[in-house]
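May I ask for a single protein's sequence together with how it folds?
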Amino acid sequence: MTQITITSNIDAPKEKVWDCFTNPMHIVNWNFASDDWCCPSAHTDLKEGGVYKSRMEAKDGSAGFDFVCTIDSIIPNKSLNLTMEDGRKWNVEFESFDGIRTKVTEMFDPENENSEEMQRTGWQTILNNFKMYVEGI
């Protein structure tokens, strides 16, 4: 199975980008793929064996799910390697450019329910929301 890779170049230093990606008070503001969904809660325990968890819900209450991962390895401001509840891998890398811009690269194992293109689009939309959020605060 080939991993799906998405990227975004964010106009912010990697320390700010890292904080917004890993801090629950920020995660709830960007972690959704469309305006009719939200992320009402998030929790992170930033250590090996810790949990990275967020709740995603339709704003009308018609659907929702918990996205839960275990942190396999962590290098603050540089990388997160996680395993989703179903065993799929998710890796996130943070690369600084000239101290004021950061490239975020996410690589994840696709699931079998939706097409790879649909998954790529959904994850990229969330990453685009993240970029807009970070650059806006």
User: Anything to note?
Assistant: The mean pLDDT is 96. The CA atoms of residues 5 and 59 lie 28 Å apart. The domain at 4-33+75-136 is CATH 3.30.530.20 (Alpha-D-Glucose-1,6-Bisphosphate; Chain A, domain 4). The two ends are 37 Å apart (CA to CA).
